[in-house]
Amino acid sequence: MESTLQSTIESIGYNVYLQDSLNELANFVETGNYSKFFILTDEFTSVHCLPLVEEKFAGKTYDLIEINAGEENKNIDFCIGVWKMLIDFGADRRSLLINLGGGVITDLGGFAASTFKRGIDFVNVPTTLLSQVDASVGGKTGIDMDSIKNIIGTFTQPKAVFIDQAFLKTLPPREILSGLAEMLKHGLIVDAAYWEALKNSDLSIPSIELIGQSVVIKNRIVISDPTEKSHRKALNFGHTVGHAVETYSLDNDKDHLTHGEAIAIGMICESWLSVKKTGLSEAEVNDIVKVLTRLYPKYQLPESNFDAMIELMKKDKKNEGNTINCTLLKSIGTYAINQICTEDELRESLKYYASL
Amino acid sequence: MESTLQSTIESIGYNVYLQDSLNELANFVETGNYSKFFILTDEFTSVHCLPLVEEKFAGKTYDLIEINAGEENKNIDFCIGVWKMLIDFGADRRSLLINLGGGVITDLGGFAASTFKRGIDFVNVPTTLLSQVDASVGGKTGIDMDSIKNIIGTFTQPKAVFIDQAFLKTLPPREILSGLAEMLKHGLIVDAAYWEALKNSDLSIPSIELIGQSVVIKNRIVISDPTEKSHRKALNFGHTVGHAVETYSLDNDKDHLTHGEAIAIGMICESWLSVKKTGLSEAEVNDIVKVLTRLYPKYQLPESNFDAMIELMKKDKKNEGNTINCTLLKSIGTYAINQICTEDELRESLKYYASL
């Protein structure tokens, strides 16, 4: 693991800025040949984060599009709202959409931009840890439908991504933990040293160096396979079970799980499956479980709900035909894609989590 | 102008089949490694065209998605309907969507497929003359919103296009004329000999050779500029005024203009503008007007409606900033893109049409 900070990471045709990022954004806006600017936010980022951006905008005019915060709003209705605002504000093909917020904003805004007039430019200014380490690179845009996450979307790269650690100070601890799950995953799938470094760090607000490491790891994977034909599936570790748990919680819990909390559960279940199927050692699964159960609160997963979760896993867009597909671990730092798991195996893995 | 028929035209990563096309479709379905098949049609094509396709399917199972016919249904509501049907029928990433119908079906189906699970494969089987010569190549997908045509969409290529002249026999004469306008446009912008050939042909049902010529012309243009940065704008001749007239008619007339009828009006107006601005000769504009007024009925365009049409032109997605942009003719067979026209000039061109 390298521990020095790169100030800029090159992704697929664009840069991710890690240092002095809001000045870089101001510079991008100033020098890009755009006719109009739009900022997409939610009611929280418009209070906590927009002022930091506005400070740098110094006189540039822009139109603000504000939507309600929350994963439950990452849907076609809000997307239609964004499209109609762009129409009403007279957006043309040389307009720029600036997505300022968490994954809901960058995913939905990216999708809206990638389909408006068959594609206008957009940049992402991710303001949550999760969106900084996960949604900022990879070119996935999307919205949810019928309780299926990201079922509608495109592969479209932003023109730039600006990551500023200052935004994280406005986040509640649960939101930090949500992003942390993806960072831990990056270590587990390809970088054992990074996993060790995370275990031994103060993670209340991760350093920009650790954040940068995560972006570098994810970036390396998506560059090798932009449209998820093979390597990129590494990033799905924890997500087959995790997405199902997340959707289930979203539909059933008043105070529902965050993405990271659900993925932490998914990683525990899929680590257990990895012992059964791909050779992860008992010592490693114990290490993973110890770290994840220390960081994340236990979620009640009664056996009577397992069937509903299995049904959700069957609808996962990663499946082909009628099988359920997982990415598992061979060891900490090595992954195995396309592992077909039976319903019984998945049920057992949920039982394992429930028994902890 | 070449007059022999190519059986296959190579476009951007896919083939357009002109001969024995339904057998080619059957072969594509048989040999492509797909998990499921979906056919998207409307209530007319499912009666008139689907049986011809089914004959060739011999035992292959597929799910049928039928939507209401008509440009007014090329909207997000029907698109959501298609997405939900794909979800309900269990479409996965290896599913194939077969768009069987006119431009509404190929545009909407292409958009639905290009955004479902971030893109599944689709092929087009255009059943109207318009969709055969216009929508079959170019990779534009889209839906209308707020009376703006194709405002939401993507650039996504189909995996193949199958053109069969047999479908045209089921079309009313107005539908043939609608497609013919695009064929005439192809001659006007880049091929004077093709324009002459069309003038002197029996056009009640154009021959597959003439249809093939149009596809070849359009294909050559879009290959040189897939995302419409420059050359491809040639295809917009007649469409700045034409789209506005079409939208206006769609919103106001019970028996509204077809696309081609509107584009024929647009081509007359923009030919008049071409005389003023880009050197088209009086003799040429007279030739164009003579042919178009012989083929297409006169549309009543009262001066009291010009303002509404100008407003629609201002919303055209081809514009940049606050100007209205046209593609005009330097001569029959030569075009000039990015011609900014004033509102007065456009008003005068409408007056010219009304005076004929």
From TrEMBL, chains A, B:
<dbReference type="GO" id="GO:0005737">
    <property type="term" value="C:cytoplasm"/>
</dbReference>
<keyword id="KW-0479">Metal-binding</keyword>
<protein>
    <recommendedName>
        <fullName>3-dehydroquinate synthase</fullName>
        <ecNumber>4.2.3.4</ecNumber>
    </recommendedName>
</protein>
<keyword id="KW-0170">Cobalt</keyword>
<dbReference type="GO" id="GO:0009073">
    <property type="term" value="P:aromatic amino acid family biosynthetic process"/>
</dbReference>
<dbReference type="GO" id="GO:0003856">
    <property type="term" value="F:3-dehydroquinate synthase activity"/>
</dbReference>
<keyword id="KW-0547">Nucleotide-binding</keyword>
<dbReference type="Pfam" id="PF24621">
    <property type="entry name" value="DHQS_C"/>
</dbReference>
<keyword id="KW-0456">Lyase</keyword>
<dbReference type="GO" id="GO:0000166">
    <property type="term" value="F:nucleotide binding"/>
</dbReference>
<dbReference type="GO" id="GO:0046872">
    <property type="term" value="F:metal ion binding"/>
</dbReference>
<feature type="domain" description="3-dehydroquinate synthase C-terminal">
    <location>
        <begin position="179"/>
        <end position="319"/>
    </location>
</feature>
<dbReference type="GO" id="GO:0009423">
    <property type="term" value="P:chorismate biosynthetic process"/>
</dbReference>
<dbReference type="InterPro" id="IPR056179">
    <property type="entry name" value="DHQS_C"/>
</dbReference>
<comment type="function">
    <text>Catalyzes the conversion of 3-deoxy-D-arabino-heptulosonate 7-phosphate (DAHP) to dehydroquinate (DHQ).</text>
</comment>
<dbReference type="Pfam" id="PF01761">
    <property type="entry name" value="DHQ_synthase"/>
</dbReference>
<dbReference type="InterPro" id="IPR016037">
    <property type="entry name" value="DHQ_synth_AroB"/>
</dbReference>
<dbReference type="InterPro" id="IPR050071">
    <property type="entry name" value="Dehydroquinate_synthase"/>
</dbReference>
<keyword id="KW-0862">Zinc</keyword>
<dbReference type="InterPro" id="IPR030963">
    <property type="entry name" value="DHQ_synth_fam"/>
</dbReference>
<feature type="domain" description="3-dehydroquinate synthase N-terminal">
    <location>
        <begin position="65"/>
        <end position="176"/>
    </location>
</feature>
<keyword id="KW-0520">NAD</keyword>
<dbReference type="InterPro" id="IPR030960">
    <property type="entry name" value="DHQS/DOIS_N"/>
</dbReference>
